[in-house]
Amino acid sequence: MEIKTDSAEKGMLYLVSTPIGNLEDITLRALRILKEVDLVAAEDTRQTLKLLNHFEIKKPLVSYYEHNKIEKGNQLIRQMLEGKNIALVSDAGTPGISDPGEDLVRLAIENGIEVTAVPGPVAAVTGLITSGLPTGRFVFEGFLPMNKRVRKEHLKNLVGETRTIIFYEAPHKLIYTLKDLYEVLGNRRIVLARELTKRFEEKLRMTLEEAIRKYEEESPKGEFVLILEGASEEELKQQQRNKWEDMGIAEHVEMYMEQGMSKKEAMKKAAEDRGISKRDIYNSLL
Ligand code: SAM
Questions:
Q1: Which residue lies with its CA nearest to atom 7 of ligand 1?
Q2: Quick one: which of 7, 41, 126, 227 has the fewest CB in 10 Å?
Q3: Which reactions are catalysed by this chain (predicted)?
């Protein structure tokens, strides 16, 4: 799609993905759009200046990050309404993924401004496809909440998640996150994809227990994507059995009767759930 030049019309918002480490991963279209837009809004202008200088692109840069996103967002919208074309780039990778990009996109849509993406690297997907864990179905969790209680609650909601789970984490918080994952989700396979596309890229394929042991002994360096195996069928069955164990037999039978089953049907179903005989159910209700 060509950039609009008619200043009577609204400008466009281009979400331009940039490399997550290796500058060769910039796309031809990203370079063209960065050259053609009126200005570039960047999460970290120093970082983006390095990128633009590397590709010999001279362009006005404005900062757009978490703590100025409301004020700057409104300014950028005004400029696009006046006909300016703006490229939004994040520190690395795809804008809108674990950075303030999504707010600007929402504002642009609310103001009738066309939004288009110049796709490119995303650390989450780059980590996933090299992990060796199932890629057919996955969930992206981004950064976990900082507050310990909220974080645990959040993780509890993932206990029954069977899809591969992807997290972002900063190195100084890695060990806490690994321990929380282990405590709430048990010992699963994890791939720590470190420094993707960079010189010291590494994929550490291990169990959560092994990862904790490793990072108790050495401090993690660089950027990490964590790719965690989802819950297995066996784990799900065990979780279900634990749930029934917490529930008394009478309560279990009543639950099904409240759902409309006869007592006989409810006893049969409860026996199946618990993996015990109908006689055991009957005896315990006497
Ligand atoms: N928008 C980016 C994207 O598309 O992936 C993500 C931005 S988020 C603020 C930064 C996080 O992405 C890092 O803390 C790390 O978890 C992950 N990340 C970015 N680059 C990475 C790399 N080269 N290797 C591993 N993880 C990376």
A1: 98
A2: 7
A3: cytidine(1402) in 16S rRNA + S-adenosyl-L-methionine = 2'-O-methylcytidine(1402) in 16S rRNA + S-adenosyl-L-homocysteine + H(+)
Is the same domain home to 221 and 238?
no
With 0.90 as the threshold, say if the pTM is over it.
Answer: no
pLDDT of 45: 95
99-129 pLDDT tens trace: 889 999 999 999 999 999 999 999 999 999 9
Mutational test site, ligand 1, from 17, 20, 198, max ligand atoms within 8 Å of CB: 20
- Return the residue whose CA atom lies nearest to atom 20 of ligand 1: 20
**Comparing C-alpha atoms, which of 150, 186, 166 is closest to residue 226?**
166
3-state secondary structure of 193: strand
CA-only gyration radius of the chain, Å = 25
Sequence-ordered alpha helix ranges (H) in 111-262: 123-131, 148-156, 174-185, 208-217, 233-246, 249-258
Is residue 45, in this structure, part of any structural domain at all?
yes
Together in a domain, 65 and 134? no
Parent domain of 258? 234-285
Q: Are 115 and 43 part of one and the same domain?
A: yes
3-state SS, 237-253, equals HHHHHHHHHHCCHHHHH
CA of 141 relative to ligand 1 center, distance in Å: 13
